[in-house]
Amino acid sequence: MAIVVEHGKRRYEILEKALDIFVEEGYEDATFQKIADRCGITRTTLYLYFRNKREIFVWSIKQLTDAVEEDLREMIDSDVFNWPQKLETVLHTIIDRCTENRRLFNVVLSYLLQAQKTGKDPDTRVKRRTIRLRHLLSRLLIAGRNAGQFRVANLKEANDLLYGMIEAAIFHIAILDRTQADDIKAAISLAVKGFTVST
């Protein structure tokens, strides 16, 4: 009797296990064979799902960021908090997720630096992750402003400020190898308070 393979489930498992390899070994040292071995499949079978290591890496990052985005959207759509509370919670959650995945950010950084060194443009899908996060922040700022809870004269500048704080947190976590970003969370809370209309 033939074994039925759920391709969607197997693809998900490959991406999860590959992400572990990238975190443990780094992008350069992770190989197609190591990923196949970790998944308990042959390289030939792995080629049925992905063309190369770079594609696996990008899809692994996408899978992780999609899960984070889904959590953030749930917070945004929640009726429990007002807009300033939602913005602060979303930003703190992003910082917490960065802290939880700090080894992954080292891998992403090395991937981006390698692409820059070789003159290759980093994958546009990686860039799209950044743009989507900025859209989420803009959505929060606009909704809060429309509800009369934020005073934001220049939406782009406010978004740049908040996104810059996220980048600073990633720098602290990935480059300086700090395990906490409480100082940046406090700065974020202060910035959100600055945008908030007093009641």
Structure in a nutshell:
By secondary structure, the protein is mostly helical. It has helices spanning 7-25, 32-39, 43-49, 53-77, 83-100, 102-117, 124-146, 155-175, 182-195.
Can you describe what's shown?
The protein has one domain (7-195): Tetracycline Repressor, domain 2, CATH 1.10.357.10. The protein is built from 9 helices and no strands. The chain has helices spanning 7-25, 32-39, 43-49, 53-77, 83-100, 102-117, 124-146, 155-175, 182-195. Helix 5 (83-100) runs parallel beside helix 8, helix 6 crosses helix 8 and helix 8 (155-175) packs antiparallel against helix 9 (182-195). The longest helix has 25 residues, at 53-77. It starts with 6 loop residues before the first helix and ends with a helix.
Mean pLDDT: 84
Please compute the radius of gyration using only Cα atoms. 19 Å
Secondary-structure content class: mainly alpha
- Quick one: overall form? elongated
Outline the low-pLDDT stretches. none
- Specify the number of helices: 9
Helices and strands in order:
Elements: H1 7-25, H2 32-39, H3 43-49, H4 53-77, H5 83-100, H6 102-117, H7 124-146, H8 155-175, H9 182-195
Helix pairs in contact: 1-2, 1-4, 1-6, 4-5, 4-7, 5-7, 5-8, 5-9, 6-8, 7-8, 8-9
